Amino acid sequence: MKKNAVVIGYGGMGGWHTEHLLKSDVCNLIGVYDIKEERNELARSRGIFAYDTYKAVLDDPRVDLLTVAIPNDQHRDGVIQGLNGGKNVICEKPVAMSSAELADMIKAAERNNKIFSVHQNRRWDVDYLAMKQLSESGEIGEVFNIESRIHGSRGIPSDWRGELAHGGGMLFDWGVHLIDQILMIIPDKITSVYCRFDHITNNEVDDGFKLDLGFENGAKAYIEVGTYNFIAMPRFYIQGKKGTGIIHDWRQNCKVTVCTHWHESEVVPVQTAAGLTKTMAPRDSVTTDEYELDRPLSDVHEYYRNFCAVIDGSADLIVTHSQAMRVMHVIEASFESNARGQIIKTEL
Q: In CATH, what number is assigned to the domain containing residue 26?
């Protein structure tokens, strides 16, 4: 049986959720609620029922689940109100402003015996899925380095995402996604965090950042978000002990080169501008295989299908509390690293 859903917050992501829920095979969208009356009126003008108050949503016995899509600093109170009101709750990312706030949400879910999870929708990005598939396949051997970048050129948004009090900044906005993706590819314990913020167009919050993660197994990850890049660097770059993979743009396939023979009988030196080099001589088809991965199949609505199945008791959460908490701890360590200007040793 389909679950009845209400979206709290009818802004950018709230609108995205309503569009997907209207087409859902597991949910009925029965309404929305926004603290701004003009947003409720906009919903009504589009044929979507809008509640007059949040209390009216919680008092409606038909409602099975809420999707909370409001500014970051309001997540904790909005989620806990929903859980205390007897509703299952999905929260937009970043789930909270701190690990302490997230702990309060988890306790509220447990206390009320309700399902709660964060909407990490970018686990369904095809570029991430291709990287995860390549890593898990063993085709390039043991992964020792992965780099993840998102580059734009329009600066930070001019709405609440540029304000510190509301949890603005790119670490919260995009970093939460990219960190989650990396931790799904490399699940080992994180032993070091080193983060540097950019303040090119906004002095109040980070409008970009550079983050290095070190793992117990020796692997390293580099995550970068930039909002003032007029030429973007590759979206993903991954190195294993048998080969390399690269995705230049999320619209392109993953290109893979696998080393089939390490030694060559003769390496022809390459003439560079200032001399010869054997070390950097390019390889050829005799010692490598080159190919592209097919784009993985992806359906972002699997998140809602999973959440509804968990409500029915027939599945476990895809995005777990421990995963959400781990991402939050990395974000907190990143803020600390930037503030102190040094590497933070961790056991995350």
A: 3.40.50.720
